[in-house]
Each structure stands twice: as C-alpha cells, then as structure tokens.
Amino acid sequence: MGKKRKRIHYHAAGGVVIDDAGHALLLERTVIRQGHPTHETRLPKGHIEPGETPEQAALREVCEESGYCQLEILADLGKNSVSFEFKKKQVERDEHYYLMRLTSPQRLAQKPTNKHSEETLFAPRWADSLVEAEALLTFDSEKEFVRRAQNWLKQRR
User: Fold this and answer.
1) What is the DSSP string of 8-30?
2) Most exposed residue of 61, 63, 90, 98, measured as fewest CB within 10 angstroms of its CB?
3) Mean pLDDT by 10 residues, the chain (157 residues)
C-alpha cells in the first residue's frame, strides 16, 4: 500500500494590480523545481495571517513581494481553490484575489517575511496590459483572475 502524503491546507490572498496606464504588475523568479531551474511569472499573493482579513492580507502581500505599497482595492475578484504537490506534500490552497490600482509609482524595498524563502527571488515586471499579463503568467489559476479583472473593467466602461 502506498505511503500517504502529508496534506497542507491554507488560505491566501493577492492582487491583480494595474496602474493608471493599464499596465499590470507581475512577479518573476527562477526557482529550482525537481532539480531544474524553472522560470515563473506570477501574481503577488501569500498566506492570510491570523486576525487578518483577506483584503488586508492581499495589500500586505503585494507590498511585501513587489515593493509597491500604495494601492487601493477596486474590486473583489472572488476565490478559487488549487491543489498541487510541493516538497512531497499535497497542498490545498484557497486563493482570494482583488483588483487593485497603484496610487503611486513609488517603490519601496521588498520586505519578505523570511529572508530564506523563495519570495526573495521575486522581481517586479510590468506587462503592457492585462491581456499581455494573462499570456505571460505561468499558472492557469492566476490567468483566471486576470480574466476576471478584464471582465470587471469592461463592465465599467
């Protein structure tokens, strides 16, 4: 009989961030996956800490991972659940995203919570549009939230 994998379940929140010109904030990094360097293009997101609302966590995570901290939430883009294997553990993650607008282009130093974590490898990249952001993203679950942001913006024009 096969060995049962340890399961981890957590809640995360993040942002689809746009500036006034319609550019979209992405994060890029190269990490080692199964012994090989893998390039990833992601949306900023992370764990919701005890006592935090999803909105607070999303704003904090965008700030910590990108250095862009002057943000306003425009819309709740909803939730999605993803499941994947990471370091021989089965991870279940409930993700909640918000459409955010950058209110100032000022960028602070990134503030990762753990200086040895993979989030220290993130480098901000601005896509020219949400359409380009969707094409550049590595994970389908994140592409879905970019599509939701596009739909929300279209309905308001």
Assistant:
1) EEEEEEEEEEE-TT--EEEEEEE
2) 90
3) 71 96 96 85 94 97 94 97 76 92 90 58 93 97 97 92
| 43 close to 62: Cβ distance less than 8 angstroms | no
Query: What's the full length of the chain, in residues?
Result: 157
The partner residues of 81 in beta bridges, in order of sequence, read 94
Quote the pLDDT of residue 59: 97
Q: What is the CATH number of the domain that holds 70?
A: 3.90.79.10
pLDDT at residue 121, as a whole number: 72
> Please, which residues bridge with residue 46 across strands?
13
Q: What is the DSSP string of the chain?
A: -PPPPEEEEEEEEEEEEE-TT--EEEEEEEEEETTEEEEEEE--EEEPPTT--HHHHHHHHHHHHHSB--EEEEEEEEEEEEEEEETTEEEEEEEEEEEEEES---BPPP--SSTTSGGGG-EEEEESSHHHHHHH-S-HHHHHHHHHHHHHHHHT-
- Tally of domains in the chain: 1
CA–CA separation, 111 and 121 (whole Å): 12
Residue 92 maps to a domain = yes
